[in-house]
Structure formats: structure tokens, C-alpha cells
Amino acid sequence: MIDVYALLRPCLFSVGAEQAHNFTLENLDRAERLGILRHVIPTIPPNPQRFCGLTFPNPIGLAAGLDKDGRHIDALARLGFGFLEIGTVTPRPQPGNPQPRMFRIPSAQALINRMGFNNDGVVACVERVRQSQFWQSGGVIGLNIGKNATTPIEDATADYIEAMTAVYAVASYITINISSPNTAHLRSLQTEAPLRALLSRLSETRERLADQFGLKKPLFLKIAPDLTTSDVAFIANLLVEYGIDAVIAGNTTTLRDGVQGRQHAEEIGGLSGAPLQELSNQLITRLHAQLQNQIPIIGVGGILSGKDAQAKIAAGAQLIQLYTGLIYRGPSLISACAQALAQRH
Prior knowledge:
Elements: H1 2-12, H2 17-33, H3 37-40, E1 49-51, E2 54-56, E3 60-62, H4 73-78, E4 83-89, E5 102-105, E6 110-113, H5 122-131, H6 133-136, E7 141-145, H7 156-167, E8 173-177, H8 192-213, E9 219-223, H9 229-241, E10 246-249, E11 270-273, H10 277-291, E12 297-300, H11 306-315, E13 319-322, H12 324-329, H13 332-342
Parallel strand pairs: 3-4, 3-13, 4-7, 7-8, 8-9, 9-10, 10-12, 12-13
Antiparallel strand pairs: 1-2, 5-6, 6-11
């Protein structure tokens, strides 16, 4: 599989990023249906992690955004991830932003996207999760939820409540995404008063759903890497106050450090990949210092090697998630990270 991806990557990089993305996932599904993946993907050694009441077979997860609709769950799980995060899903289907909306910067091992929560809606996604063998066999699947683009920001809470209610029965955990730069005004929910109001309502909703289902599902918050030290401080305090179980640090950045002057660097959207690595690590370090182990952290951003994965854990994360690194390294990145983190124990 490693050699195949190395051979295929120049061909994939010769077409548009979104076209290559869809082509790769469709063929990954085909390989899974034909039983090919189980013979070519190396087995990831067990390294179980207990996190927010859940047991993860290993600490390597798939970040939200790669499989927005839960169309490729079983094929992606076969690659060796300890958990998958699906989404971002919204209450109603929406097409996202106009294409082209995803751009590679290979010389910086980076990606810029302005996808805009393109998805088939939460009901379709939940049904796909139910149909997956990975979910039916007890695999850990997080559902990442957001608001529809047409919903005014002052009404965003209703969208999050609707989405949380819809995913609650199937989600191993639920992630509140308030940090994408590609939905207008969404990041304003990271300011103190709106965030307090949102977390208060979502905490109440979770209590109601926990009573209904007889099980309290973990609730995570995904934040941006562009936050100031004071932002991190009040967010950390609100996480504790409202009983949020974990924080995902972080999303893409609107900064362009490390890619200035390169082709596509001025495209609107969120930057991910290698240039995000240090910014992400700094966010994790600040969060870890502020939270004092009261709430665990999932580290995301700029992981392209096992050493990068170790740096996330050293900064204060307990689990990691991959996305852009997979585009540049392929499935071998998963085993490289798993081996590197297993060596820490």
C-alpha cells in the first residue's frame, strides 16, 4: 500500500485537489469491498487508550473533514485508525462553497480549503453510520456538528441542538465545531458571551438526551489555533464550568505563515498541513497549562511524521487526529504515528 500510494500520488496531484480526494476515497471503498485492504494494510499494534469513558484501540484518529458524510467509514477504519470523526454535518443538506475550494501547496506540504460544510445533512449521515460494519462492531465514531450557512449566527444554537439530537443515538462522542473559518461568522461563537450561551444550552440538551437514552455521551469542543492567550483562558474556564469532556486543538488557520508568496497562498480559506504544526502545538501547550489536567486534549494540525505525533503528546495532548498529512504521506502515516506513540510507553 505504501508503494502504491507513492506511485499514485503524482497522478493524484496532477488533477484538482477535491477531484483527487473523491477519486481516492471511492477507490479505497472499492478496495475494501473486494477484500484487498485487509491484505495490504499493516496491522496497527494495540495501544489502547482510555479517554472520556471510551476505549480507543490506539491513539490515532481521523480528523473531521475528510469524510463529511460517513460515506467511507469501513474503508477508512481498515487503514488502522483507533477512531474516526465524521462531519462536519449540519441539520439540513447544503452544497458548501463554490468550486474550486481546495488547493494544495506541495512545496510547503500544506492545503488550503474553503469547503463550507458541504454535506447531505445529518439524517443521511446518521443512517450511513448505522449501516457501517465499523459502527456495528463497536468502533469509536465521533460526530462533528455545525450550523447551516443559511442560519443567522444569532440562531446558531438551534442548529446545534437539532444536530446533537439527531446524532446522539449513534455517536460515540459529539464534537461542537465553532472554529471553521469557512462559514460566515461561525468563529464569533468562540467569543465569551456567545460561547457561554451555546455551551449552556448544549449542556442542558445533553442532560435531556442522557435521560432519554440512559447514557451520557461525551461532548467535545473544537477550537481554532488562531486564539489569543486570553481567549484560551476563558474558553478553558467555560469548558470546565459546563462539563465539556474534551477539547480538540485545533482547526485550520487563517494565517499564512510558512506559505507566503507560493502559488495558492492567497486563496481564501483555512490553512492546514506542515505550516500549522507549531501554531497547533502552542495552542495545546497553552490549553494544557490552563486546564491543569481537568479536561483532556486531542491534538490536530501539521502531523506528517511519527516525530510530529510525539510532539503533540509532549505538548499535552492524549490523542491525535490526522488529515492533511494523509494527503502527503498516505496510509503509511498512520502506522508511523502509531509506532512512534507506542514507543512512549
